[in-house]
# Entry
Amino acid sequence: MSNRTLQLGMVGGGQGAFIGAVHRTAALLDGVFALTAGALSSTPDRARASGAAIGLADDRNYPDWRTMLDAERRRDPGQRIDAVAIVTPNDTHFEIARAFAQAGFHVLCDKPLVHTSAQATELIRVVRNTGVIFAVSYNYSGYPLVRQARELIAAGAIGRIRRVCVEYHQGWLATRLEASGQKQAAWRTDPARSGAAGALGDIGSHAEQLVACVTGLELESLCVDQSTFVPGRQVDDDAAMLLRFVGGARGTLTASQVCVGAENDLRLRVWGETGGIEWRQEQPNELRVAKLGEPECLLRRGNDYLGPAARSATRLPPGHPEAFFEAFANIYRGFGAAIHAGASGLEAAAQHDFPGVLDGARGVHFIEKALESARSDARWTAARFIPPA
Amino acid sequence: MSNRTLQLGMVGGGQGAFIGAVHRTAALLDGVFALTAGALSSTPDRARASGAAIGLADDRNYPDWRTMLDAERRRDPGQRIDAVAIVTPNDTHFEIARAFAQAGFHVLCDKPLVHTSAQATELIRVVRNTGVIFAVSYNYSGYPLVRQARELIAAGAIGRIRRVCVEYHQGWLATRLEASGQKQAAWRTDPARSGAAGALGDIGSHAEQLVACVTGLELESLCVDQSTFVPGRQVDDDAAMLLRFVGGARGTLTASQVCVGAENDLRLRVWGETGGIEWRQEQPNELRVAKLGEPECLLRRGNDYLGPAARSATRLPPGHPEAFFEAFANIYRGFGAAIHAGASGLEAAAQHDFPGVLDGARGVHFIEKALESARSDARWTAARFIPPA
Amino acid sequence: MSNRTLQLGMVGGGQGAFIGAVHRTAALLDGVFALTAGALSSTPDRARASGAAIGLADDRNYPDWRTMLDAERRRDPGQRIDAVAIVTPNDTHFEIARAFAQAGFHVLCDKPLVHTSAQATELIRVVRNTGVIFAVSYNYSGYPLVRQARELIAAGAIGRIRRVCVEYHQGWLATRLEASGQKQAAWRTDPARSGAAGALGDIGSHAEQLVACVTGLELESLCVDQSTFVPGRQVDDDAAMLLRFVGGARGTLTASQVCVGAENDLRLRVWGETGGIEWRQEQPNELRVAKLGEPECLLRRGNDYLGPAARSATRLPPGHPEAFFEAFANIYRGFGAAIHAGASGLEAAAQHDFPGVLDGARGVHFIEKALESARSDARWTAARFIPPA
Amino acid sequence: MSNRTLQLGMVGGGQGAFIGAVHRTAALLDGVFALTAGALSSTPDRARASGAAIGLADDRNYPDWRTMLDAERRRDPGQRIDAVAIVTPNDTHFEIARAFAQAGFHVLCDKPLVHTSAQATELIRVVRNTGVIFAVSYNYSGYPLVRQARELIAAGAIGRIRRVCVEYHQGWLATRLEASGQKQAAWRTDPARSGAAGALGDIGSHAEQLVACVTGLELESLCVDQSTFVPGRQVDDDAAMLLRFVGGARGTLTASQVCVGAENDLRLRVWGETGGIEWRQEQPNELRVAKLGEPECLLRRGNDYLGPAARSATRLPPGHPEAFFEAFANIYRGFGAAIHAGASGLEAAAQHDFPGVLDGARGVHFIEKALESARSDARWTAARFIPPA
# Structure
C-alpha cells in the first residue's frame, strides 16, 4: 500500500448522527483515507463543535458545506481534500453532490442518492463532464460473500435465474419512535427530508441494489403494496412487492420497519435452474449454496476456495469474523482505489467494484416506480431503468 | 384411552403412493384407528395386491371404492368401518367423499379438498344434513408449536397483526421430473388429476391454511403472479402473491417447487403491534417468539411452559424430537376424538382441533381466487371466504 | 413386506412408564411387530390394568413375566410370541432376559443391558448356545444420518480419526426431582434399580455406544471425573472423561443431567486427518461434513446422495422430518428383519444393523471401568473391551 | 471524546505478520490511539521497510526496539509515545515488556504473556513499582456479549456454577503447514519461539482466560491429555483437560488445531444451579441464556435490555454486526481509558475492564500446570493461581 493517504472531507455526520461515525470508521479502517476537513452539520455552531470533538484542524472545520467547498478549492492541489463524503439527510444530497463534483472533487454520497430521476440524470451528466469518481454507499454490497454470490451467479453456478426473494426487515419503527424526538426516526419519517418513500427509500433501496448487484438482473416491472401501520406516521413503514425481471425471472421484495424482533434483517435468496444461494446480513460470513442433487454447502469468508472478489475484500483469516464496518470500508476501499488508479467517470465503479452514480440513479428510479405502482393499487408498473444517454 | 379402537377404511394409497403410507402410519400411531378395509387403487388388481401386501383381510380388501362402500354399509354396525380416509388424486375426492358421507361414514379427505367451490358447498351441505364428521388432512396444523403459535396470537401475545409472511418452497420439481415417469410428479403436474393449480394447489393450499389456522385472519383480497418455469410443464410450478386481510393486515405468500436446495420448506412469520413469531416445518420443535424490547425466545416442544393445545399434541419429552408423522397423527387423533365424543357435523372440527370441511372449502375458494387474480395479471381480486349458509 | 407380522411380548412399560409407550410405538410403526402379550408391571394388578388399557387380549395380559414366559412357551409355535421386549428398570434385565432367551424367545432389551460384566458374559453365553437373536435398544444409532456418518468414516471420508467429542447433556435433573415422586427420576436415581452409575449409566452409555457405532474405534483407556451436584442425590448426575482409543485417537465424553436449558442434547463430533463430521440428536435430519480445503456441507435425510445405510433407514422424502420414534423403530426393524431372515446368535446384529448383546456387554464394561477410574480420582484406567471367548 | 489521542508505539507486527495489522486496526478504530512510532521487526531492514509501508515518520521508524526505547524516552513528555504494543513472538515478550515498563511506558502485550511464572512475577513487581498500566491482549474478552455473560453470572442469573465447557477448535494446523514455510505456522510450532506449549499456549490460554473472565471461578486443579497428531510437529497441536474449580464446579477445556472444518471456533458454555449460558466467537453478537423452567432466550448485541458492560462496548445498533476488530478494539479502549483516567498499576485493569498483567500471569501459570499434568500422564495437578504478594 505505497499509495499516499487520501484526504477526505465530510458533509454532515455531526454529533448525534449515526451514519457519520460509521462513514468515518469505514473510511479510515484501511488507512486509505484520512479525514481532514468537514462541515458536519447544517447548523454552523453544531458543525464546528462536532468537528472539534473529532479532532478536525480548526482551519478546516467549516461551519457549512459551501464555505468548505470554497476554501478547499482554494487550497493547493496537494493540500486540499481529494474527495467528499456526503452523509446528510436525503433532501440535500443533490445540491451538495453536484457542487462538489462540478468543482472536480470526487464524491461518495449516501443512499438513496437523490429525490428525483431528473436530479439523478443531472448528476450523471456532471460525472460524465467532469470525470470525477462518484460512489454511492450501498454498503451491503461490500460484504465478501455478497461478492462471492455475484461471482458464482455470473459464472453460471446456479444456472439461469428463476426466482429472487429479498427481504429487509427491521423492527425499530414498530412504535411511533419519531414522536419521542429520536433523531434517526425523526428525519427518516419526515417526507420533507427523507423523500416520499419511508421504508421503501430507507431500506427497500438497499434491497433493490443487493438484487441488482448479485444477480445482474434488470427489473422489468413491479407491483407494490405499501402500508403505513403506525398511526400518525407520515411515510410508509412497510412495503411488499412482486417483481418481474427482463428475461423471465420473478421475485418478491419486502421492506418493513415494523417487524418486531427483526433488527437489521436483510436476506437474499436466489434460485436458478441448477442451484440456489442464500445470504443473510446478520450472519454475513456465510453463504449457502445448493446445487441440484448435491448437499447444500456453506461457504465461509476468508477461505482459499472463494473467488478473487471475496478474497480481496477480506482482512482476517477464516473464523475471525468481519462485519458491518469492514463491508462498509470495502466501498471506501474501491472508491479510494479508483482515485489512486486515476480512473474516471462512469466506468470507475465497475472497474473498482463499488456502487456508482448509475446504481444510485437506478435506485431513485426504482423508488419512483414503486411509489407509482403503490398509488395505482398494486398494478404492474414498468420499471426498467435505462441509463440516460 | 379406554375408547375402543376405531375401524378405518382407506380409498387410494396403494403401492407406489407416498401419501397412503403416511396416512396409515399417522392413523395407527396412537392406536386410535386400525385399518380394517380398503380399496387402495383405482385399478382393481392393483387395489387387491396392495391390500394384501399390507395385511388387509381378504373379504375387506376391495377392488374399488364403490364395492367397499356397498359392502361396508351392509355389515353390522359394530363390524363396519367407522370412517374412511380418502387419499386419491384430487379429481376423485368429491365423488368418493360425498358418497361415503351420505352413507353416514365419517370422512377424512386429503387436500386440496375438491376442484370447485360448488363441490365444496355440496359437501358442506351433506355434512350438515348427515351430521358426519369430516376432516381434511392439512397436516401441518397438527404440529404442537403451530398450535402454540395460534394460542399465543389468540391470547394477544403479539398484539394486532400487521404483516404475515408464509413461504412453502420445494425443489423437487426444478427439472421436468414428470417426464421420467415418477408417479408423484406425474399426477401432480397433470391438470386433469391435480386441478388447474399446480404448486398453488399442492403446497400453496397448505400455506393458506397454516396462515388461517395460526392467525385467525380472514383473507380479503389477493394479487397473484403465477409462473411455470420448467418448459413443457402443464401447470404452474411457482406462485407469489400479495395478501390483504380483513382488518388491515398485509401478507405475502410464496409457493414454489423449483427452489433448488429447498426440500419441504414451509415457514410462517407473523408480526403484530407488540411481537412476532416464526416457525419452520423443517425445525418443527421450535417456535421463535419476539416481544417489543425483549430478547427473542425459543419455545420448544414438550415443555411445561407451553399452553394446553401444544402440550396435548405431544407424545415425547423435550429434546426427544417429534416430527412429520406425529403432526399428521394429531389430525387423526382429533378426528378420532370427535368420533368417540359423538360430535357431529360442522362444529366437530373446532371442538376437537382438526381442519374440517369448512377449512377445505375455504382452501378451494382460495385456489379459485388465486387463479382468477393470476389470469388477470396480478390484479387485486376479492377473496373473502363466506361459508355457505 | 410380504413377511408375516411378528408377535411381540412386553415386560414392563405399564402405566406411567415413559419408555414402554415409546417401545410400543416404535415396534408397531412399520407393521413388523404386533403387541400380543405383556406383563407390563412388577405389580400384578397394575400389570393387568395396564395391559387392558392398551388392549391386550385378556388371556395374554399377564400378571408377571414368569407367568407370561410359562404360558407363552406352552402355546403352539405359530400362536406364541416371537420375541420379548424388556423395558423394566435395569436391575431386573438380567434375570428376565436370560429366562426368555433360554426358552428360545428372541429378546430386545433396554440399555444399560445389565449391572455386571459377569451377567453380560452369561447372556452372551446363552445367545451363543440358543442362537436367539438379542438386541439392545441403543436407539440413537437408528438415526439415518448416524448411519451415514458411520458409512462415511468407514469409507475413509475423514481419514484416520484423531479426536472424538461426544456430549450428552440434559437438564431435567438439575433439581432434586426424585424427591417430588416423579417416577422416571425416582428409579433412575436409585442405585438399587439403576445401578451404581446415574448419569453415566443412563445417558453416558448411549454416548459410548454412539461413538463405538459411528467410529468403529475401540476404547483403550479412560480417565473420569464424576460428580453429584444435587444435594441428597444417591447417584452421579454428571460425568466428564478423557478417552484414549486403540490406535491413538483421543476423545472427551461428557454426560450430565444438570445442564439447565439442555433437553436431550446428544452430539457427536469426530475429526480425522482429512475431514470432520458433526451430528446432533435434536436436529437429527442433518449431518455436517467438512473436508480439508472444502466448504462444509450439510447432508440431509432422504436424499439420493446418501449411502444405502441411511437411505434404507428412512420412510419419508427430504424435508419431511423424521425423528425419535422412527430412529427407535429402525432398531426394531433390524431386529425383525433378522428374525424373518432366520439369522441366529451373535452375528445377527451386524448382519441386520442393530445393536446386539455384544454392544450391550461392551456398554456394561464401559460403565464398570468408568466408575473404577472415577473412584481412583481420575486416573487412566484400561478399558478395552474383549468379548468373552 | 475530548481526550487527546494517545501515542502508541509498536514492537513487532511488520510485513507478513498477521497480528500486527490487527493490533493497529484495533488501536486506531476509535481514535483513542495513533500509531506514531515502531520497531516492527527483529530484522532492522525489515523493521524500517515495514514502518515506511504503513507511514511511520522516518525519525520514529526504528530499526529495533532498544533504539526505539532510548529515543522515545529522550523525547519531550508530550512528544513521546504514551504506550507500547508488543506483538512479537512469545519468547521476546518478557525482555521488551520489562524494559518499556521500567522506563515508565504503559504496555499492552500479546498473549501468552511470558514463558515462565518467574518472569510473570517479575513483571508484576515492575508494574507495582512503576505504576504503569499493563494490558494483555486477551481480545475475546472484549466482545460485548462476553461481558454480558460475565455480568449475568456475577448477578446470580444462573445461580452457583456447576459445569463449564470451553472449547477452542481450529483446523488450520491439521497438516504440517509449518513445513511449507507459512510464517504463522512456523513460529507457533517452534518451541524456541512459542514456548513449550503449542495449541495449549496459542489458543488454550485464550480459553482459560475466557472462563476466568466470565465465570470469576478460580481453577483448583486440572488433569490434562495432550497430543501431537501431525507427524514431525515439535509442539502439541491438541489438548483436552478436566478442570476442577475452587468451590466445587467442574469443567472441560479442549484446545485443538487439527479439527478439520473448524475455523476459529471458541465456545463457552456455563451451567449453574438455575440457568445456563452459551456463547460462540463465530456468532459473537448473540448470547443464549436458559433459566430453569423458562424458554431459552437469545440476547443480541446493541439492545437496551443488555447491561452497562455490554452496552458500553458497542458501536453499532442491533443487527448491524460487530465482530473481531471491534472486540479487540475494546481492549485498547479500556487500556486507553485507564491512561486518560490516570489510573495506575495492578488496579487499572479491573477498573477499566481490560485484561491486565495478573491475568497474563495466571495464564502463564495455567500453561505451566497443564504441561505438568500432561507430562504426569493426566494426573490431577493443583493449579490454583495465587498472585505474588
